[in-house]
Backbone:
């Protein structure tokens, strides 16, 4: 009985190790230029997005906005495994991103937009811009 | 034919009636959203005019100092002598008395009752599903109005008879209110459909008139050589921008740390369609005007959509039009209800021979 328990425990450790290795392999450096769109639930358009990210350890800085001409500084940027979380304040709206690096060059996740009156959710999809 | 139209009229109300009621109730509330917002937050919305108006720098410093030294993201200068100036920080919007520098308080971000009402009106406070239901309900409303006119036309009666509990009373009320509110309701339904199907309408307009994305009368790049000395103040940025558009009033000043430039939004009080589409970007180092975006340079699609929205909200003709929008919206639930009562009583009469 104890032998079966040991075997299960060993298997669990192996599976956990494989998962951790896979996650760390997936969670590459996010430094670079990322472009894509977000779409608000119940909204019409896909809104263009462009981020210039700088990763230093578990800290994420840089800027983001709809294009290169309109960029806002990233606030409270942090990395946890393959998860990236950060905020932007454009003025009336605050954007809170919660993204996952699903592939080395792909970030997907959710975005919460908040003004003093409204709160909305959106889906975000970004890919690393080649050459950056 | 009349029997078929009556059935269509009835079925449209049965299918989409509840959503028409919701559109009417929420629409009548958000027609006066700014005024209701001020009523809900009286301490943050009113100041007593008097004395010298402080500079934006002084106002920004007062707000920032009160809230942990947070940098100013943007200013919303007061639009009326008795409204405060608002300062946008990352954590929320701070109201400051522009005469005394007193910080009135902060509004943190998140949904309010009015925000929820608007969300209900636009998307049933949900996502794509809610939005689809509502935009098709607006289509149903348009057909319901058209079929209602067809049914009203032969008798053309505008009168109310009988006691309030009688079928006759509700029948007359439905007919009279329906025809009297027809025009504003038709306009609201049609403009609402355009808003609901914005993407589809936009692509049609782009096909018809072509895309003309250039609506900058002047576009240059930010000065890189002039990065010496101190930046100009937001007050100086407003003065420079205002000189470009005499008669326009600054309603928004975006600070340069966001995008590297000051962006000053200017509005003409007499332009209710696209008054908030004028913006001037200014280099913070040398005060040079970098970009001028004018509402007069909107593309046909942008102008059409802005005009449509101004009609839908009533903003196009100011307060009187907003009152009409609110009243017509109130009639909508009344029409659905009276129609339902007529149908219920008619069914009972038929059943009882």
Residues:
């Amino acid at each position: 009985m104890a032998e079966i328990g040991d075997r299960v425990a060993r298997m669990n450790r192996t599976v956990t190790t494989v998962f951790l290795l896979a996650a760390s392999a997936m969670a590459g450096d996010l430094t670079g230029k990322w472009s894509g769109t977000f779409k608000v639930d119940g909204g019409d358009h896909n809104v263009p997005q462009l981020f210039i990210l700088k990763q230093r350890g578990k800290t994420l800085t840089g800027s983001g906005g709809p294009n290169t001409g309109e960029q806002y500084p990233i606030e409270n940027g942090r990395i946890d495994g393959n998860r990236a979380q950060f905020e932007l304040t454009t003025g009336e709206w605050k954007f809170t991103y919660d993204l996952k690096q699903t592939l080395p060059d792909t970030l997907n996740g959710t975005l919460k937009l908040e003004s003093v009156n409204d709160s909305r959710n959106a889906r975000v999809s970004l890919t690393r811009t080649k050459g950056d | 034919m009349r029997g078929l139209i009556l059935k269509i009229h009835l079925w449209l109300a049965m299918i989409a009636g509840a959503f028409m009621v919701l559109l009417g109730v929420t629409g009548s509330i958000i027609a006066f959203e700014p005024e209701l917002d001020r009523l809900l937050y009286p301490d943050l919305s009113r100041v007593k005019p008097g004395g010298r108006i402080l500079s934006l720098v002084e106002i920004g410093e007062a707000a920032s100092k009160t809230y942990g030294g947070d940098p100013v993201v943007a200013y919303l200068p007061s639009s009326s002598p008795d409204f405060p100036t608002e300062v946008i920080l990352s954590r929320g919007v701070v109201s400051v008395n522009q005469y005394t520098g007193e910080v009135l308080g902060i509004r943190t971000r998140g949904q309010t009752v009015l925000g929820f009402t608007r969300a209900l009106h636009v998307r049933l406070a949900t996502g794509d599903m809610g939005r689809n239901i509502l935009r098709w309900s607006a289509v149903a409303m348009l057909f319901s109005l058209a079929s209602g006119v067809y049914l009203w036309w032969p008798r053309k009666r505008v009168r109310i008879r009988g006691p309030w509990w009688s079928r006759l009373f509700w029948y007359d009320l439905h007919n009279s209110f329906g025809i009297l509110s027809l025009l504003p309701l038709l306009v609201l339904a049609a403009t609402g459909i355009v808003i609901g199907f914005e993407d589809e309408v936009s692509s049609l307009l782009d096909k018809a008139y072509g895309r003309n994305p250039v609506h900058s009368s002047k576009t240059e790049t930010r000065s890189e050589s002039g990065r010496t000395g101190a930046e100009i103040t937001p007050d100086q940025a407003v003065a420079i921008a205002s000189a470009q558009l005499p008669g326009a009033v600054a309603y928004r000043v975006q600070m340069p740390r966001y995008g590297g430039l000051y962006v000053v939004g200017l509005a003409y009080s007499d332009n209710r369609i696209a008054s908030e589409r004028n913006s001037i970007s200014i280099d913070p180092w040398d005060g040079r005007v970098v970009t001028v975006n004018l509402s007069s340079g909107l593309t046909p699609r942008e102008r059409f959509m802005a005009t449509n929205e101004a009609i839908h909200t009533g903003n196009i003709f100011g307060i009187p039009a907003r009152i009409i929008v609110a009243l017509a919206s109130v009639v909508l639930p009344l029409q659905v209800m009276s129609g339902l009562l007529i149908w219920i009583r008619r069914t009972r009469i038929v059943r009882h021979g």
Observations:
- The interface with chain B takes residues 41-45, 65, 69-73, 75, 87, 89-92, 94, 114-121 of chain A (CB under 8 Å).
- The two ends of chain A are 56 Å apart (CA to CA).
- The mean pLDDT of chain A is 84.
